[in-house]
Design a protein that fits this description.
alpha/beta; Rossmann fold; elongated; UPF0229 protein L2749_02305
Length: 422
């Protein structure tokens, strides 16, 4: 089996394959750091890269030591104290020697954590790994597009991990044949001529010597043809193509009533920003409808949804009514995959919560692929939570989750949109 050793100078992006191997090896620690970063960041910085810190104990390599006892010979380089047969005293302290420092010590010395930066794309890839829109089904294959990686032939440039051994060896063989075929033909002719001269009596020694020099020179030229060259290397080429899928729409319903204080609104915004990043990164041309509500509901654009300061009382059914009206007018259920994500603190007029139950049960849940509701509160759950819990027992396309702190956002998000087992 041929072994390829890449001795080229380290070019830009050359360490990409090692970087990916490192991320794959320590994915558990990196994903934990990424999920922690989501809760620490401000709303405007949630989609940027991240500086990852991994404890040294997690990346330390195994160390092999010889156990006590037994008879063995050792070579101590630089020995200027002992001769053969001398007895070496046992080290003071009675413990085995080891390499490296501990994480902490009473002398103030220790090892720092290993810190490195991941890019925005790597950050988002880890953030939304193994997530999908649940229950997505084929309707009209003309709008929503997913990206699928596929083999796209071969290329002359690439990273070592994608090298194609067979293609590279085939190219190397073709180059060596082309570069040495004429020389080998000339070598055979000179060897035949030399054999004839050596068999003939009275041949001139000078001519035989000249032929031998030519033969040696041709052999050196043939031997100098490299077995593998940079021009021979071929790499597997991968590209992304659009994978047609059904068209889909996501309704985002956010409570902005007076009971939603600034901290609660901030948690809701973080959740919706995560949802927006997930949808725009994973799906192309998926439409998003933003609805804000207090006593009245209103369809707004992306900027107003996240930054408007409007507030008021609470009538949750107003948002569900508006969603149903928009869906009927613009997104027929036989042509669209309909999704909805609602965030609220659970505070609602007591007589409006049963109305929300009826709207969902009769008009919305029979049409949507998936309806997710998150309640952001430290208080005890009220009537709205009970109504949604009851719907969860009746329908399998609604999920109800509770968020108390900022740290709960990402785990709840992953639970709502985790990839379903086939």
């Amino acid at each position: 089996m041929a072994n390829f050793i890449d001795r080229r100078l380290n070019a830009k992006g050359k360490s990409t394959v090692n970087r990916q191997r490192f991320i794959e090896r320590y994915k558990k620690q990196i994903k934990k750091a990424v999920s922690d970063a989501v809760t620490r960041r401000s709303v405007t910085d949630i989609d940027k890269g991240e500086k990852i810190s991994i404890p040294t104990r997690d990346i330390s390599e195994p160390l092999f030591r010889q156990g006590q006892g037994g008879k063995r010979n050792r070579v101590h380089p630089g020995n200027d104290q002992f001769n053969r047969g001398d007895q070496i005293q046992r080290p003071r302290g009675g413990g085995q020697g080891g390499a490296g420092q501990g994480d902490a010590s009473d002398s103030g010395e220790g090892n720092d954590d290993f810190v490195f930066n991941i890019s925005k794309d790597e950050y988002l890839e880890l953030l939304f790994e193994d997530l999908e829109l649940p229950n997505l089904q084929n309707n009209r294959l003309n709008k929503l597009v997913e990206y699928q990686t596929y083999r796209a032939g071969f290329t002359n440039d690439g990273v070592p991990a994608n090298i194609n051994i067979v293609r590279s060896l085939r190219s190397s063989l073709a180059r060596r044949i082309a570069m040495s075929a004429s020389k080998k033909r000339a070598l055979r002719e000179l060897e035949a001529e030399l054999e004839q001269l050596q068999d003939m009596p009275g041949s001139k020694a000078e001519k035989i010597l000249a032929l031998k020099e030519q033969i040696e020179q041709l052999k050196k030229q043939i031997a100098n043809v490299p077995f593998i060259d940079t021009f021979d290397l071929r790499y597997n080429n991968y590209a992304k193509r659009e994978k047609p899928s059904s068209q889909a729409v996501m309704f985002c319903l956010m409570d902005v009533s007076g009971s939603m204080d600034q901290a609660t609104k901030d948690i809701a915004k973080r959740f919706y920003i995560l949802l927006y990043l997930f949808l725009t990164r994973s799906y192309k041309n998926l439409e998003v409808v933003y609805i804000r509500h207090h006593t009245q509901a209103k369809e707004v654009d992306e900027h107003e949804f996240f930054y408007s300061q409007e507030t008021g009382g609470t009538i949750v059914s107003s948002a569900l009514k508006l969603m149903n009206e928009i869906q009927q007018a613009r997104y027929p259920e036989n042509e669209w995959n309909i999704y909805a994500a609602q965030a609220s603190d659970g505070d609602n007029w007591s007589d409006d919560s049963p109305h929300c139950h009826d709207l969902l049960a009769k008009y919305i849940l029979p049409k949507v692929r998936y309806f997710s509701y998150i309640e952001i509160t430290h208080r005890a759950h009220q009537t709205l939570w009970d109504q949604y819990q009851d719907l969860q027992q009746q329908f399998d396309n609604i999920a109800v989750q509770h968020i108390r702190e900022v740290e709960d956002i990402y785990p709840v998000f992953r639970e709502l949109f985790k990839k379903q087992a086939v």
